[in-house]
Specification:
Elements (H helix, E strand, L loop, with lengths): L2 H27 L3 H25 L8 E2 L2 E2 H25 L1
Antiparallel strand pairs: 1-2
Helix pairs in contact: 1-2, 2-3
Length: 97
């Protein structure tokens, strides 16, 4: 890894950790379906960042199980966070009505 990649990864990990901490604090204060889905979005996004970093460092390798040539774990980390964000938005809109 180059110095720029190390700095970028460190920044992503720090900011992602701060976002996760803030989302946990928000969830502790206000328990609604929208906030819980938002917390799940932030945590799965942070897990995706950590997983990508571990793959780039060679610590974790992709599983042999794949769907259409895409490793299942990578597919899950790419598709699950937007689902949680979508659910959070839907619950927030439904609550306003």
């Amino acid at each position: 890894m180059s110095d720029a990649q190390i700095i970028l990864s460190a920044a992503q990990l720090c900011l992602g950790g701060l976002c996760a901490f803030a989302a946990i604090l928000l969830c502790a204060k206000k328990r609604s379906a929208s906030v819980v889905c938002l917390l799940a979005f932030v945590l799965t996004s942070y897990a995706r960042t950590v997983y990508k970093l571990l793959c780039d460092l060679g610590i974790v390798t992709d599983l042999k199980a794949a769907l259409f040539g895409v490793p299942l774990l990578t597919l899950a980390f790419e598709c699950v966070p937007p689902v949680f964000l979508l659910l959070s938005i839907i619950f927030a809109i439904a609550k306003k009505r």
